[in-house]
Design brief:
- The chain is mostly helical.
- It has 2 domains: 189 residues, Cytochrome Bc1 Complex, Chain D, domain 2 (Orthogonal Bundle), CATH 1.10.760; 168 residues, Cytochrome c-like domain (Cytochrome Bc1 Complex, Chain D, domain 2), CATH 1.10.760.10.
- The protein has a two-stranded antiparallel ribbon.
- α2 crosses α9 and α11 packs across α14.
C-alpha cells in the first residue's frame, strides 16, 4: 500500500476508532443486533498493477489476442449472424453500453441509437452490460492478490473466469443466440461455422499449434478471454497518485477520496478495482423493461459490487441501469436512511447493513464525484478490425 493512502487511512482510524470487521458477502448476516453498535473496518484502496496474469492453461500472446479481437467483432458467433460481442461492449462506451439494458439479437444501431427491428419478439437483456476494461483483475483483493482462474464474473457470479464467461452470451437467447438454436446446440453450430472459414482455420492452427483440432468451443473461449484480458485502463490520475506522483491529484480530489473512505463507500468498493467482488442486497428498483423481477444472486436480490473504474464511459449505473448519474447513485445511498426501499420485493431488514451504515451526505456528493472521476483512464485499446474473416459487418448490425 502506498504511503499516501496509508497516511489517509491512519487519520481515518484516529477519527473512527478501532475498526474490527471487514466487508462480508451476503452469505453472512450483516445486520447488527438491536442495541449493539457495530464499528466496521473502512477498507483500503490502491493502484492497479501495471501488468496482468493469465491462467496457466491459457497463456497470452499477441497472436491469440488478435484472434480474440476478430472473434469479438465477428457476428458469426451469434445465432442469426446479426450481433457480435462488440455490439453491447463497444470501445466507444468503455467496452460497456450506454443503454440501461442492452438490445442484443434482432437489434440495429449502436449505443443509445440501438433499437429492435420491427416485428420483434426478443426481450431486452436481463442486466446492464458491465465494462470489460480491467476484467483481467477481477477478484483482486486489498493486498493485490488475485487468481485469473477464479475471477468472479457477471452481476450474479455465475462464472468464475473470463474463459468460462466468454461463451455464455453466445448461449443466451436474448443476447446472441436468438430463437434459431437451442442452448445445447449453439456451440456446435458456432464451431462448425468457424471451421468452414479458411482464414479462421489457419489462425486457430497457428495460435493453438499443438492441438489436432484447433477450432473448438474451448479455444474460441480462450481466444476471446485473451483479448478481453488485454483491455487495460490502469493509468488513471488515481493510479498515478497512488504510485507516488503527488502532482496527479488536486487538494479537492484528495478531499473527495478521504470522504469516499470515511463515509463508508470503501467498505465494499475497495482494493485496486474498487470492488470487493461480493454480493450485497441494496433494493434498487426493478427495470420496467423486464417482465419479471430480477432476484439476482440465488434469488436473494443481491448483486455483485461493480468496479468504480472508468465510470465516465459506462453509465447508466446499477445492475439494471436505473440510475443515470453518479449523483443519482450517491443520492440513492443517502435516501436509504429515511425513504422507502425502491424495490418492493426487498424489505428494509434485507438490505445490507454496510449500505445502511453509509453516511453519505448531500453536501459531500460533489466532492466524492470529483474523486470518482479520477478513476477514469481514457487511454485504452480502441482498435477495431477493418474486417472480420466471415465477411459479415464488423461489430454486427451497429450502423
Amino acid at each position: 500500500m502506498q504511503f499516501r493512502i496509508l497516511y489517509t487511512y491512519i487519520l481515518l482510524l484516529l477519527m473512527a476508532g478501532i475498526m474490527i470487521s471487514a466487508c462480508q458477502n451476503t452469505e453472512t448476516d450483516h445486520r447488527e443486533s438491536p442495541g449493539k453498535k457495530a464499528v466496521l473496518y473502512l477498507g483500503r484502496i490502491d493502484a492497479l498493477p501495471v501488468t496482468y496474469k493469465s491462467p496457466a492453461d491459457n497463456p497470452s500472446s499477441p497472436e491469440k489476442i488478435e484472434l480474440g479481437r476478430l472473434l469479438f467483432y465477428d457476428p458469426i458467433l451469434s445465432g442469426g449472424k446479426d450481433v457480435a460481442c462488440a455490439s453491447c461492449h463497444h470501445p466507444e462506451f468503455g467496452y460497456a453500453e450506454s443503454l440501461d439494458l442492452s438490445i442484443g439479437v434482432n437489434g440495429t444501431g449502436l449505443g443509445e441509437k440501438r433499437k429492435f427491428n420491427s416485428n420483434n419478439d426478443i426481450p431486452f437483456t436481463k442486466r446492464n452490460a458491465q465494462s470489460l476494461l480491467n476484467t483481467a483483475f477481477n477478484g483482486i483483493n486489498e493486498d493485490g492478490d488475485y487468481s485469473p482462474e477464479h475471477a468472479p464474473m457477471f452481476w450474479d457470479l455465475r462464472a468464475s473466469s473470463l474463459e468460462e464467461q466468454a461463451f455464455m452470451p453466445v448461449k443466451t437467447m436474448e443476447e446472441m443466440r436468438g430463437h434459431g438454436f437451442t442452448e445445447e446446440n449453439i456451440d456446435g453450430e458456432i464451431v462448425r461455422r468457424i471451421n468452414q472459414i479458411p482464414k479462421y482455420r489457419d489462425l486457430f492452427k497457428h495460435v493453438f499449434e499443438n492441438e489436432d483440432s484447433a477450432v473448438t468451443d474451448k479455444n474460441i473461449s480462450k481466444a476471446l478471454a485473451a483479448f478481453e484480458r488485454s483491455l487495460l485502463a490502469n493509468n488513471s490520475s488515481f493510479d498515478k497518485f497512488m504510485r507516488g506522483d503527488e502532482s496527479a491529484y488536486s487538494s479537492s480530489e484528495k478531499d473527495g477520496m478521504q470522504l469516499f473512505i470515511s463515509t463508508g463507500c470503501a467498505r465494499c468498493h475497495n482494493g485496486p478495482m474498487l470492488s470487493d467482488f461480493k454480493t450485497h442486497v441494496l433494493g434498487v428498483a426493478d427495470n420496467e423493461k423486464r417482465p419479471q423481477s430480477d432476484s439476482g444472486y440465488h434469488g436473494t436480490y443481491a448483486f455483485r459490487t461493480p468496479s468504480l473504474r472508468n465510470l465516465r464511459f459506462t453509465r447508466p449505473f446499477m445492475h439494471d441501469g436505473k440510475l443515470q448519474t453518479l449523483e443519482d447513485v450517491l443520492s440513492f445511498y443517502e435516501d436509504l436512511h429515511g425513504k422507502d426501499i425502491p424495490n418492493h420485493h426487498v424489505k428494509r431488514e434485507q438490505v445490507d447493513s454496510l449500505a445502511l451504515m453509509m453516511t453519505v451526505d448531500f453536501k459531500n456528493i460533489n466532492a466524492i464525484v470529483e474523486f470518482l472521476n479520477t478513476l477514469n483512464d481514457g487511454d485504452y485499446d480502441k482498435k477495431i478490425p477493418a474486417s472480420v474473416p466471415s465477411g459479415l459487418p464488423v461489430g454486427g448490425k451497429i450502423k
